[in-house]
Task: inverse folding
């Protein structure tokens, strides 16, 4: 197995944290998909994401990730490297990265060049989160990969090793790619993460000694089993001497529980339409409240909302504490899918204010 030496700093010491716990406080981070509201445009959504990133840095969130999705009219973050560059330009200290880049959709050389360039331009601030899923439907995946055969072949481990080789210049003997120099990839290695929603990537991340981010926000039932597999298979590496697990959770925080549930209706209806093969822009909360759900749809939405953390600040604080304790997470990443960018920003502000208050209270108690 090739070494991951020099992969970059995974964490730092200055960020908004959740505490107290028996162990070190848990940092809070942001995952955003540049949601496109009904009646809005992709351009407006992208600018709203960049604006959110500026505020997230001011509020003290540790990192800001964007996710790759395709053929989804309600999500504008189809090209994470491009958006990451703009976000990094608009901020100064916060880590910025992908949550993630879906490696099977791309050749490893191009990913190394793109993220090597980002790391060269913004040294020490770039995270490369790698996913194995297509981030889209099978027809669109075929269009991305240009070959039906590529849909059935699972060469993810080989792609991952190629990506590492392009960054480091270290290859097995007689490897055909050893003569290729990825510019500016080689020597500009960002912090690399593996992402997952099942046990496969959890085991790979553990075996390689990489940090692991789990998609609790759409695969809640698999969260604890996958994290157990990650820790069970973890081998110390040049990157980490112990497991480091981040959990991504869907959170909507508003002034009251009722208001938060109302705002969360937009994301729930949008996800229902996506799963029903009817993707579209983000509906307004009024449209979601007026929608006539049949029995199966109602059950789907209620099940979806049951895995989210939705409510007033104290409700959200308790929900986050329960999830962090159950998962023994080292970091929590929050994603908020609501219709109005102002409500999205307000949710992140309320969460930050709640945890600033909790931290201050803990500090006062420790001082007694």
Result:
């Amino acid at each position: 197995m090739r070494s991951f030496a020099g992969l970059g700093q995974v964490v730092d010491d200055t960020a908004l944290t959740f505490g107290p716990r028996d162990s070190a406080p848990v940092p809070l981070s942001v995952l955003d998909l540049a949601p496109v509201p009904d009646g809005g445009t992709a351009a407006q959504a992208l600018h709203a994401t960049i604006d959110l990133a500026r505020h997230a840095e001011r509020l003290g969130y540790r990192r800001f990730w964007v996710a790759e999705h395709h053929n989804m009219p309600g999500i504008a973050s189809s090209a994470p490297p491009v958006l990451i560059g703009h976000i990094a330009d608009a901020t100064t200290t916060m880590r910025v990265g992908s949550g993630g880049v879906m490696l099977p959709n791309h050749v490893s050389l191009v990913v190394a060049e793109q993220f090597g360039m980002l790391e060269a331009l913004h040294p020490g601030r770039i995270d490369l989160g790698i996913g194995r899923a297509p981030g889209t439907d099978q027809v669109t995946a075929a269009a991305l990969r240009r070959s039906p055969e590529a849909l059935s072949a699972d060469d993810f481990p080989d792609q991952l090793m190629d990506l590492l080789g392009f960054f480091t210049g270290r290859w097995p003997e007689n490897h055909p790619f050893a003569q290729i120099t990825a510019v500016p990839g080689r020597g500009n290695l960002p912090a690399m993460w593996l992402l997952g929603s099942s046990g496969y990537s959890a085991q790979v991340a553990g075996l390689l000694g990489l940090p692991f981010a789990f998609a609790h926000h759409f695969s809640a039932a698999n969260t604890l089993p996958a994290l157990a597999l990650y820790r069970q298979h973890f081998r110390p590496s040049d990157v980490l001497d112990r497991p480091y697990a981040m959990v991504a959770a869907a959170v909507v925080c508003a002034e009251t529980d009722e208001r938060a549930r109302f705002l969360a209706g937009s994301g729930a209806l949008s996800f229902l339409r996506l799963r029903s093969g009817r993707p579209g822009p983000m509906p307004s909360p009024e449209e979601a409240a007026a929608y006539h759900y049949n029995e199966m749809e109602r059950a789907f939405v209620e099940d979806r909302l049951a895995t989210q953390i939705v409510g007033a600040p104290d409700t959200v604080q308790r929900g986050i504490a329960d999830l962090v304790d159950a998962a023994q997470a080292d970091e929590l990443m929050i994603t908020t899918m609501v219709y109005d960018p102002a409500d999205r920003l307000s949710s992140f502000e309320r969460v930050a204010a709640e945890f600033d208050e909790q931290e201050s209270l803990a500090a006062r108690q420790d001082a007694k």
Summary: Residues 341-367 form the longest helix (27 residues). The chain has 13 helices and ten strands. Residues 1-6, 360-365 have pLDDT under 50 and may be disordered. The first strand starts at residue 17 and ends at 18.
